[in-house]
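User: I'm curious whether this sequence folds into something compact or stays loose and floppy. Could you predict its structure so I can see for myself?
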Amino acid sequence: MKIILSILFTFIGLGVLGIIFIYSGLYNVSAIKPETGISKWVLETTSDNSVEHHSKAIKAPDLNDSSMIKEGFVHYQEMCESCHSAPGKKETNLAKGLNPPAPDLSESGKEMSAEELFWVTKNGIKMTGMPAWGRTHPDDKIWAIVAAVKQLHKTSPEEYNSYSKEMDEKEMEEPEEQSHSKENKIRYH
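Assistant: Here's the prediction. I'll summarize afterward.
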């Protein structure tokens, strides 16, 4: 009985110490100071395993369709480039201020499965700055982004920029009223 009481009081004591620590303000939440050691390991391991677990039931469509990839690059330029950069692009000030830093998707696109990329893009990642694009974009648009990300590692800066040029030319062909509404949609993502 004494052992059980000792274990119980130990857990109560640890809980009280945890609450004191939480309310003390001692933990530095500044985005300037990156996580290190055990806290970094806990956050990264939890995130990696959560993404893997929650993406298991997802089935990717055929991501080799050239029009889907092209559409994905247009969305990537609008929604992803400012944090994740792109072939031939410099890191933005926004990206420099993120903690944890946004991953290089030309590398992550090779390492992660299409289903994992889809889940992250659709659901976001808490406390990382990664938004849940599933709140504003249908699945087919998210799959298009995933198709582009899976191609990112083998896309030259010239090829990447050609998608931007095509997007600009397409917008110039649209009637002015549609162009403004599209511009507003992009601005508020």
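Summary: The first helix runs from residue 2 to 24. Residues 58-187 form a domain with the Cytochrome Bc1 Complex; Chain D, domain 2 fold (CATH 1.10.760.10).
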